[in-house]
Amino acid sequence: MALPKTLLFSLLLLLATDTGAPEAGVPGCYLHPINVTVRSDRQGTCRGSHIAHACVGYCESSAFPSRHSVRAASGYQHNITSVSQCCTISRLQKVKVELLCPRSRREQLEIFTARACQCDMCRLSRY
């Protein structure tokens, strides 16, 4: 018997544990595996784990003096122009996590995991 989606999403608790990644300082934006533990509620009534993926790394950013027209239009307040990109998820995938419940009962829950990453425009709403 599946738990109602609204209940699962309101009670979902994810615990992420590092499972290793490329060497620190390696440039780029790439998938990183994490061990995700999913619980149906704070007491862990139903529990399961799955290797999910997140996007980690860094992308190219630069700053340079603003053009005269930009400086003039901003009342000479905008002296530096910066161009930044952030490591973001470009494709998601739904995966099913099997939860083991009391009395050997099993439930299934779908979670999202990153399938592909890319450097893209930074958006505050993502973080």
Automatic annotation (TrEMBL):
Molecular function (Gene Ontology), one example: hormone activity
Domain CTCK: 29-123
Organism name: Phascolarctos cinereus (Koala)
Subunit structure: Heterodimer with GPHB5; this heterodimer interacts with thyroid-stimulating hormone receptor (TSHR), and hence stimulates cAMP production.
Pfam family, one: Hormone_6
Name recorded for this polypeptide: Glycoprotein hormones alpha chain
One Gene Ontology biological process: cell surface receptor signaling pathway
PROSITE patterns: CTCK_2 (PS01225), GLYCO_HORMONE_ALPHA_3 (PS50277)
Signal sequence segment: 1-21
Record localization: Secreted
GO CC annotation: extracellular space
Family: Belongs to the glycoprotein hormones subunit alpha family.
Function field: Functions as a heterodimeric glycoprotein hormone with GPHB5 able to bind and activate the thyroid-stimulating hormone receptor (TSHR), leading to increased cAMP production. Plays a central role in controlling thyroid cell metabolism.
Upper lineage: Eukaryota, Metazoa, Chordata, Craniata, Vertebrata
Keywords: Disulfide bond, Glycoprotein, Hormone, Secreted, Signal
Entries under InterPro entries matching the protein: Cys_knot_C, Cystine-knot_cytokine, Glyco_hormone, Glyco_Hormone_Alpha
